[in-house]
């Protein structure tokens, strides 16, 4: 078993692999208006942990599949994640000027172009999914299942539904259950999609897909609570953003409802629960997904 | 051969068929936040000619395929068309308060919800496409080809690219070629997609798909020029919107560049060219597509 620090280096190299492919995602030969292309690439290449695409690659490998064949779907989920951030930052939504220390898309390219770049990234994601079949010979049946699940987990019943609930709830979330509904859809749905999509690439059985789903929902909630905790006790330098922003914006969070200590305990429990689900499924090659769960629990940014 | 008036009734009944299916597109059993569902349905059910979905159905029939099996893809293209109108109407884009005599989406549900409803409709469109396989047994390979083409024709290289070019060109389009680039992508690309998608449903050959493409591009441009002509000589009552709006907004149009008479001539030529491409392909059942071309040329709204 590698140490956490070595695993951190592995994750960094995987993120680089994803970024190298993202740079090529809009070939110069494609006839796309210049500013639209720039606006799309600006947000695609604006950094981030590349966690979701890495999960696609690791889930494919956990099932004995090829990471290379999973790459088009990995790019797709990063495009969906990126579009959601571009639209989320718009003045009509969260009205953010900066993200990860860089100006947000609409601050650079204007609101209209930011809306169009988001639309184009979302549309392009589905194109990228189809390339797992075209480019790597993954059976059409499996790639169509990934298409169906991407539209399910990213749409009105998934991520966009979570965004809408978050927006509607801003006037006052009073119950932990309401907060969990929002996290479930805003954060966990795309994580669950990423894991299942990697599974589909490798031809996972229903039972294996169910184990990935269980792993993903527990991990997704742990990830979100860890985010809330880091907003309270984290290091601004490492996070690359100001801490205590939730408190300042009067955002309700897990620590708000159950306290810091119980939140930390919850992250540990959820991580253990996630790992147990995966171990019980006897996947061919689960080590890196299990390490990823620990890595995320211990992260400081 | 039926008369134009009887054909008009047929088109109206096809539009009703599409609308009856659109009402069911977001089943009540789906867990979607209430206002998001309302906002999506508001724009989906706000009328319109339903021309693109009808083209999907007619192209499938022209190739000897089943209209019923083509219906999920027909709904998909109407969802894409609808999302593009919702985002187009936003204050940051065209800033329109009314469309077809009804308040635009953001005037009723607010800007944030209109952005999310558009995103959700676009995402849902891809879900609907997959149902041609799930619900009607169209081979996964064909449905995946439709998915790939939808993301191509609706994305950065297609419709969204056209929107971006239109926006960037607002400061002054000086050449007819620039105007044609915008029409090609803003209008014709979705029409071409609709025809090809119907073809795919019916298992069209490459040669047949090429004929549908040629038909679509000629028809799409004719449709757009006819729109420009109706804006000058049309009846406000029939159009359901004020005429001479292009002139008032200083929008360059086909009549602006080549005059009204030459524009009318161009519509006739393009329609003839479209029909010839289709006739030469010897499709099993092309009559209704041919009638549709004449019908669109003669329309007064």
UniProtKB/TrEMBL annotation, chains A, B:
<dbReference type="InterPro" id="IPR033749">
    <property type="entry name" value="Polyprenyl_synt_CS"/>
</dbReference>
<dbReference type="GO" id="GO:0004337">
    <property type="term" value="F:(2E,6E)-farnesyl diphosphate synthase activity"/>
</dbReference>
<dbReference type="GO" id="GO:0016114">
    <property type="term" value="P:terpenoid biosynthetic process"/>
</dbReference>
<comment type="similarity">
    <text>Belongs to the FPP/GGPP synthase family.</text>
</comment>
<dbReference type="InterPro" id="IPR008949">
    <property type="entry name" value="Isoprenoid_synthase_dom_sf"/>
</dbReference>
<dbReference type="InterPro" id="IPR000092">
    <property type="entry name" value="Polyprenyl_synt"/>
</dbReference>
<keyword id="KW-0808">Transferase</keyword>
<protein>
    <recommendedName>
        <fullName>Farnesyl diphosphate synthase</fullName>
        <ecNumber>2.5.1.10</ecNumber>
    </recommendedName>
</protein>
<dbReference type="GO" id="GO:0046872">
    <property type="term" value="F:metal ion binding"/>
</dbReference>
<keyword id="KW-0479">Metal-binding</keyword>
<dbReference type="GO" id="GO:0005737">
    <property type="term" value="C:cytoplasm"/>
</dbReference>
<dbReference type="Pfam" id="PF00348">
    <property type="entry name" value="polyprenyl_synt"/>
</dbReference>
<keyword id="KW-0414">Isoprene biosynthesis</keyword>
<dbReference type="InterPro" id="IPR053378">
    <property type="entry name" value="Prenyl_diphosphate_synthase"/>
</dbReference>
<keyword id="KW-0460">Magnesium</keyword>
